[in-house]
Each structure stands twice: as structure tokens, then as C-alpha cells.
């Protein structure tokens, strides 16, 4: 589930606030379509990582937040980002010959 495209980006953006609305999240994720965002949020909700609260208003207000289970992932995600930044290849550098053969 977390390996699916956009899932970690969604979790990372959800972690910046207690609750976030769909369009606010969509604006924070440049390039994601509404359909894909809705699908990923539903998958994350089914996995127990995201909660969805719908308010009976017109138009309906929907807020998303991380579950305690997902909050535990924050530490792992931050460490993964730290590791990725440490080993990130500088812009303009080409992969090595060995990496190109893979």
C-alpha cells in the first residue's frame, strides 16, 4: 500500500496538520488528479492509516486526518527522507554505468 504512487506524499502532507480538506491536500500535491487522490485516500482509510470525517453541510465538508497508527509512521518517513537526502545524486549527474545496466 505505501509503495503505491502518491501514498507516502499524502501521508507526509497529512502529517503537517491535524486535519486537512481534500482540495487543500490536492493543492499541496502538484500533479495528482482528483481521482487518484480520492483512490489513495480510500486505500489509506481502508488500511487504517487515515480517518475521514464528513460533515452534514451543503456543500459537504470532508476532512482527513492521520490515525495513531499512521502517526507512528512519521518517524520512519522522516528517517527515510533523511537517508534519501544524504544519498541524493546532485542535479545534472548521470547514473554510473553499473546503475544503467540494471
CATH superfamily: Winged helix-like DNA-binding domain superfamily/Winged helix DNA-binding domain
- Tell me which oligomeric state these chains represent: single chain
The CA-CA distance between the termini, in Å, is 25 Å
Average pLDDT works out at 86
- The proportion of residues forming helix, as a percent range, comes to 40-55%
Instruction: Give the spatial strand order of the biggest sheet.
Output: 1-3-2
- Might you state the CATH topology name? Arc Repressor Mutant, subunit A
Element string (H = helix, E = strand): HEHHEEHH
Taking the sheet with the most strands, its summary is: 3 strands, antiparallel
CATH C-level name: Mainly Alpha
How would you classify the helix and strand content by structural class?
A: alpha+beta
Low-confidence stretches: none
Question: How would you explain this protein's 3D organization?
Answer:
With 102 residues, the chain is an alpha+beta fold. The protein is built from five helices and three strands; from the N terminus they run αβααββαα. β2 (50-55) and β3 (61-66) form a beta hairpin. The longest helix has 20 residues, at 68-87. The protein starts with 6 loop residues before the first helix and ends with a helix.
Q: Topology, please?
A:
Blueprint: H1 7-14, E1 20-21, H2 22-28, H3 34-46, E2 50-55, E3 61-66, H4 68-87, H5 97-100
Antiparallel strand pairs: 1-3, 2-3
List its salient traits:
Arc Repressor Mutant, subunit A; 3-stranded antiparallel sheet; 102 residues; 14% strand; alpha+beta
Structure, briefly:
The chain is 51% helix and 14% strand. By secondary structure, it is an alpha+beta fold.
Amino acid at each position: 500500500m505505501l509503495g503505491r504512487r502518491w501514498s507516502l506524499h499524502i501521508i507526509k502532507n497529512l502529517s503537517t496538520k491535524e486535519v486537512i480538506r481534500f482540495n487543500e491536500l490536492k493543492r499541496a500535491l502538484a500533479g495528482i488528479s482528483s481521482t487518484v487522490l480520492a483512490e489513495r485516500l480510500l486505500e489509506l482509510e481502508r488500511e487504517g492509516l487515515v480517518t475521514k470525517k464528513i460533515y452534514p453541510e451543503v456543500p459537504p465538508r470532508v476532512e482527513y486526518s492521520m490515525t495513531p497508527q499512521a502517526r507512528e509512521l512519521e518517524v520512519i518517513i522522516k528517517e527515510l527522507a533523511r537517508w534519501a537526502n544524504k544519498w541524493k545524486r546532485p542535479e545534472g549527474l548521470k547514473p554510473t554505468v553499473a546503475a544503467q545496466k540494471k
